[in-house]
Design goal:
Belongs to the GTP-binding SRP family. SRP54 subfamily. It is found in: Cell inner membrane; Cytoplasm. It is an enzyme of class 3 (hydrolase). It is a peripheral membrane protein. GO terms for molecular function: 7S RNA binding; GTP binding; GTPase activity. The chain has an eight-stranded mixed beta sheet with strand order 3-2-4-1-5-6-7-8, with helices on both faces. The protein has three domains: 3-86, Up-down Bundle (Four Helix Bundle (Hemerythrin (Met), subunit A)), CATH 1.20.120.140; 101-294, P-loop containing nucleotide triphosphate hydrolases (Rossmann fold, 3-Layer(aba) Sandwich), CATH 3.40.50.300; 300-476, Signal recognition particle, SRP54 subunit, M-domain (434 Repressor (Amino-terminal Domain)), CATH 1.10.260. It is an alpha/beta fold. It has 21 helices and eight strands. The structure holds guanosine-5'-triphosphate and magnesium ion.
């Protein structure tokens, strides 16, 4: 279904791919084309706008990983943003509850509720080994209950016997009761289709939902209706607590707008996609896979990921070698700061360095923010390579120059120097204790807590922990 979008994006990136360098203008021009492609795919305007802003900002600010081209890097950035747009992680059904779990299907007339109910029953039976009971609450259309019964026969799934004259809420209650007594794991409730404007049926749906309190209320929407599907979802969300979306007719020639806008607009995950009329044409919705299908550039995305992983690996090895020798210069400090930033915390070091527990806690509690790391990085960035390798040559004059370069004060430069010194001496101590092996022993002794000096101590001090070395207070947030 994403064919034309896929083609459009493909040709945008084709132009970027081989290029040796990309300017901001190149990126912006490419993003204008991506924007048009998304709009033509019927993605909601607000969603397109945010998406383009995000990707542009990331692409322009990105450091290009060695051994890939800037164009490839941009493809990876767009891929990641698409994955996020689609919801990042696949979201499973919430059915691991005290049985029976109740799943209620809602949606407009003809959206595919009854078919999807049967598909889901088959899926849960075959793939999850669940015992399923289906019940039709559709008393609005004469043949509806019979339709589900026939589907039950085709799939070998039990359906609740029909009792003429019962109302939806009663049927739902009876289904739950029967499931409980007969040991079913999941009850699937198929409901009557409604026109959006049909207030009576909307009210009935809300009544069923509040009487039955289902574990899942899945909205079934037709992907072919594009942005309308998103509007429908918004309208239903206002009536009942939706827990997820099923997009049907993904096998049709929908342009993709519904799939791409749905998550962002409704804040509900797409849990399944219907991909045909057959009863096995149902897929668990996986953002990564769908984004991959849209971009059709899995090879490039994989390449960039591998390159990044290799570099991290090489950096980690270099670092480990230095640590083993008991060295720690400004370059190492900068590497650590970057890693911390990249990991959104002190996780990079937490497993290696004694005393990091306290530092991590301080970070998590917000005692230190990204800006601080950035400022320290800027200070180190203003040093010459020689100064970074041999911080002991930093004279007062050099410090003034560095402070100016980083737009900060000599005091702050001194704090960074002090920090590097503390860490270097911690490294020496560690080495005396027997290098990396000693470190492990020391960690075992000290646990994640206080951190008796050393790198952990220096960091937790910097982070506003109890061990704050003199002069580090300015870097912590108050
Ligand atoms: N191609 C395709 N057809 C589908 C899909 N899902 C459902 N259909 C078809 O859509 C039609 C309507 O499906 P139903 O399941 O009866 O829809 P419904 O929402 O229960 O309809 P009402 O109960 O009348 O509101 C049927 O012909 C299905 O075969 C899908 O993913 N792909
Ligand atoms: Mg139906």
């Amino acid at each position: 279904m994403f064919d034309s979008l896929s083609d459009r994006l493909g040709s945008v990136f084709e132009k970027l791919r081989g290029r040796g360098a990309l300017t901001e203008l190149d990126v912006r021009a490419a993003m204008r084309e991506v924007r048009i492609a998304l709009l033509e795919a019927d993605v909601a305007l607000s969603v397109v706008k945010t998406f383009i802003e995000q990707v542009t900002e990331r692409a322009i600010g990105a450091e290009v990983v060695r051994s890939v081209t800037p164009g490839q890097q941009v493809v990876k950035i767009v891929n990641d943003a698409l994955v996020e747009l689609l919801g990042s992680e696949a979201v499973d059904l919430n059915i691991d509850v005290t049985p029976p779990a109740v799943i209620m299907m809602v949606g407009l007339q003809g959206s595919g509720k009854t078919t999807t109910t049967a598909k889901l029953a088959k899926f849960l039976t075959e793939k999850r080994g669940k015992k399923i009971l289906m019940a039709s609450l559709d008393v609005a259309r004469p043949a509806a209950q019979e339709q589900l019964r026939v589907l039950g026969e085709q799939t070998g799934v039990t359906t609740l016997p029909v009792i003429a004259g019962q109302q939806p809420v009663q049927i739902a209650e009876r289904a739950r009761q029967a499931a409980k007594l007969q040991g079913f794991d999941v009850v699937l409730l198929d409901t009557a289709g409604r026109l959006n404007v049909d207030t009576a049926l909307m009210a009935e749906m809300a009544a069923i939902a509040s009487a039955t309190r289902p574990d899942e209320i899945l909205l079934v929407v037709d992907a072919l209706t594009g942005q309308d599907a998103v509007n429908v979802a918004t309208a239903f969300k206002a009536e009942v607590p939706l827990t997820g979306i099923v997009l049907t007719r993904m096998d049709g020639d929908a342009r993709g707008g519904a799939a791409l806008s749905m998550r962002a607009v409704t804040e509900r995950p797409i849990k399944f996609a219907g991909t045909g009329e057959k009863l096995d044409a149902l897929e668990a919705f996986d953002p990564q896979r769908v984004a991959g299908r849209i971009l059709g550039m899995g090879d490039i995305v994989g390449l960039v990921e591998r390159a990044a992983a290799n570099i991290e690996q090489a950096d980690a090895e270099r670092m480990a070698a230095k640590l083993a020798k008991g060295q720690f210069d400004m370059e190492d400090l900068r590497g650590q700061l970057r890693q911390m930033k990249a990991m959104g915390g002190l996780g990079a070091l937490a497993g290696m360095i004694p005393g990091m527990g306290a530092a991590k806690k301080a970070m998590d509690s917000g005692a230190m923010d990204e800006k601080v790391l950035g400022r320290m990085e800027a200070i180190i960035g203003s040093m010459t390579p020689k100064e970074r390798a041999k911080p002991e040559i930093l004279t007062a004059k050099r410090k003034i120059r560095i402070a100016k370069g980083a737009g900060t004060t000599v005091q702050e430069v001194n704090k960074v120097i002090k920090m590097q010194l503390d860490m270097a001496s911690a490294m020496k101590k560690l080495r005396k204790m027997g290098g990396m092996k000693g470190m492990a022993a020391m960690m075992a002794k000290m646990g994640g807590g206080g951190g008796a000096g050393g790198l952990g101590g220096a960091l937790s001090g910097m982070l506003g922990g109890q061990q704050m070395p003199p002069g580090f207070d300015k870097f912590t947030k108050r």
